[in-house]
Design a protein that fits this description.
By secondary structure, the protein is an alpha+beta fold. It contains five helices and five strands.
Length: 119
């Protein structure tokens, strides 16, 4: 079966209004509509950088115990978590083989590991 959803863990995590930390989530593969429809959003038309916020809010389907992920949640992420999600998006929507950089904690050898390829 073709995999369309990938689990991730944010480096820092999203802190909700009650102070709960949400780090684990799921991102699905983007569709053409995910990349095209946000271009009509007035927030994107006023500030093209906002495209990232809208796009990620469409493809991140779960984040911790939150009932939904919307643009406000993405806006409130720490910068390092936003950068992580942008890179994760590029990896899973690129060549179809998502990879993450890793480093051996003992010898500090750097390498890439393929993720989310279970069938």
């Amino acid at each position: 079966m073709f995999q369309t959803e990938y689990e991730f863990t944010l480096p820092k995590g999203y802190v909700d209004e009650e102070g709960n930390l949400h780090k684990k989530g799921v991102m699905r593969l983007a569709t053409a509509a995910d990349e095209i429809l946000p271009l009509k959003d007035p927030r994107v038309q006023q500030n093209p950088a906002y495209l990232t916020i809208i796009l990620l809010s469409r493809v991140v389907t779960r984040l911790g115990d939150l009932p939904s992920v919307n643009p406000r949640v993405i806006e409130e992420l720490f910068a390092s978590d936003l950068a992580y999600l942008q890179e994760f998006y590029r990896r899973i929507n690129g060549d179809g083989i998502p990879r993450v950089k890793a480093k051996c904690p003992k010898c500090e050898h750097e390498f890439e590991v393929e993720i989310g390829l279970g069938e």
